[in-house]
What we know:
Elements: E1 8-13, H1 20-23, E2 31-32, E3 38-40, H2 44-49, H3 53-57, H4 71-83, E4 89-97, E5 102-112, E6 116-123, H5 131-135, E7 139-142, H6 153-156, E8 165-167, E9 188-193, E10 201-204, H7 227-242, E11 257-264, E12 267-278, E13 282-289
Parallel strand pairs: 1-2, 4-7, 7-8
Antiparallel strand pairs: 1-6, 2-3, 4-5, 5-6, 9-10, 9-13, 11-12, 12-13
Amino acid sequence: MxxxxxxxxxxxxxxxxxxxxxVSHSPATTLIRPQATCAYATDSxxxxxxxxxxAEIVGRSFYDLVHPDEVLAAKNLHYEHIRDDMAATLTYLRxxxxxxxDYVLCALSRSVAYNCIVATIARADDDxxxxxxxxxxxxxxVLTPGINTAVPPPxxxxxxxxxxxxxxxxxxxxxxxxxxxxxPSMRVCILLDRFRSExxxxxxxxxxxxxxxxxxxxxxxxxxxxxxxxxALLRAIHVxxxxxxxxxxxxxxxxxxxxxxxxTPSYPNKLVDGILSATSDAVLLVLIPSA
Length: 291
């Protein structure tokens, strides 16, 4: 079994909708409501930050874990992600470790997926070959001063211009109430079973592309007509599952994305772009209609 036990997967609730549907059949997820209250936490959060997922994370504000100097900036950036429909971004911030009673510099990779923000959390220094930084096509945001001393800069600049790496000091106030946010564009987040071959699904955040009843334990490849597209998706899944232990696979910097045609009753024969990342519990795939 490949070792990525420092990675946690989270769903950040972005719209005022019923959370129960988002956590069904998704044991790999943490769900955070607009006020950042955690509804579910993956077991790997215990390895990462020392907190028991059920007893100490569920029902707690995510911002309780954020360094006090960075809470306002974190809230503001959360709003901007939803407002601008961001995808594949990377945010560096400090999160509190229970056992050490100190703060750990973490990397939060996230994408807006219509009714949620999907994300992974990992230690910032756990990035062999600069893979995670290279996947941040949507830009990198730094909430912690002095980050360049913690993460080697050469890998950061391989695929992203320096202008996309932005230091975000704490704003004086939270800019806009979350209730005034616009509805994001059509996207869906799919969790794939990390430990099965092919692309068996565990959960979908909405039914815009994959119809209800066709997700849990169904193979996503059955909805992809072209063999070349199926092979491309499987290759992308393989790469993101192995980046943490085989850093040479990330040298070209093109991992984590895939384009293919999907055919479902609600979304017939249309081209989509996929953004992929792997955690200790699942493979995360965000599908975005291709322009």
